[in-house]
Amino acid sequence: xxxxxxxxxxxxxxxxxxxxxxxxxxxxxxxxxxxxxxxxxxxxxxxxxxxxxxxxxxxxxxxxxxxxxxxxxxxxxxxxxxxxxxxxxxxxxxxxxxxxxxxxxxxxxxxxxxxxxxxxxxxxxxxxxxxxxxxxxxxxxxxxxxxxxxxxxxxxxxxxxxxxxxxxxxxxxxxxxxxxxxxxxxxxxxxxxxxxxxxxxxxxxxxxxxxxxxxxxxxxxxxxxxxxxxxxxxxxxxxxxxxxxxxxxxxxxxxxxxxxxxxxxxxxxxxxxxxxxxxxxxxxxxxxxxxxxxxxxxxxxxxxxxxxxxxxxxxxxxxxxxxxxxxxxxxxxxxxxxxxxxxxxxxxxxxxxxxxxxxxxxxxxxxxxxxxxxxxxxxxxxxxxxxxxxxxxxxxxxxxxxxxxxxxxxxxx
Length: 413
Fold this sequence. Notes:
Elements: E1 24-30, H1 36-44, H2 52-57, E2 64-72, E3 82-83, E4 96-105, H3 113-120, E5 125-131, H4 139-150, E6 156-161, H5 168-184, E7 192-194, H6 203-213, E8 226-233, E9 249-256, E10 258-260, E11 264-268, E12 276-285, E13 288-289, E14 292-294, E15 299-303, E16 319-321, E17 330-339, E18 356-361, E19 364-373, E20 377-386, E21 393-400, E22 403-412
Parallel strand pairs: 1-4, 1-5, 5-6, 6-7
Antiparallel strand pairs: 2-3, 2-4, 8-9, 8-16, 9-15, 10-14, 11-12, 11-16, 12-13, 12-15, 17-20, 17-22, 18-19, 18-21, 19-20, 21-22
Helix pairs in contact: 3-4
């Protein structure tokens, strides 16, 4: 009788220690209640309104973030070949991976325009969501398009959402208004995709256009690190022991260069306008840990900072870099002005001396006083310090009709 061989134990598959970072940020912008968050969910599977006040009011208040990988099936043709799933839903075969994308879901309510403007600083392209069952353009449709134009975001795709709520004739008429609105603002031949976000209708067509119309930029990876902070967190659980406490986490986008674990970085202007130095102890994105973080996509940076400094977005607006790349913080700005021409709202856009203005510098919003205003130049003194890069575009809003409205952008000297 032959001896029975024992089966070799099956080794458990080793989980990947590091994951892949998204390579581009695409904004989701448009008027309030036109379906930006629903469309983000249809594309990524994630509902980005998670803050308690957002759930209660049914609107986005903070910037929302969600990552997704786009695929293309090599066995299918046309829009059906594009999907957000690794297995083609049409033919059931494995699809080819295209790229990983981060979506930045911006609030559409008029009172949250400064939040949207800070999000525009992170975007490399955008989806402008316009509802088919409302007249185009609505006030924030126009305002958000102006913000994209001001930020130099030329690559956009329009999602004509809620087509399931109108008939064919109404949808075609609405699309004509959308095209006219885009052309008057210098966005000619922009693709317009009819969408029913609540049913994920035509999402494959939208993915196809995103791949064709919004390419990944060539980031300066060899340049010194510069990162905009859009969120910050305390990840420690209540009641945690002192030995278990972890440093604060900064979330945002690297706009140039790269970051590695162990790097020493500076944060300016710093909370209470005192710059901070810290060490990077971890890097991650929505799908897991990163070995190295580069420009493009949204990342979270673990630090050695006291977590009380980063809780509840206290670090939003900060700029992270090193001594060579970070300019000194300032409160005095000399700007070349470019006024915005509006189609919808009749706003007196001219800046006047001794009036207040809100400036959005990167992801930082700052209140200031116009100390001098000429035809195409202005000097503005801010209440809090900001980091200004050479030639940076800065959004300028002034009080009109009881709210802050975007009226111009300034270019730093």
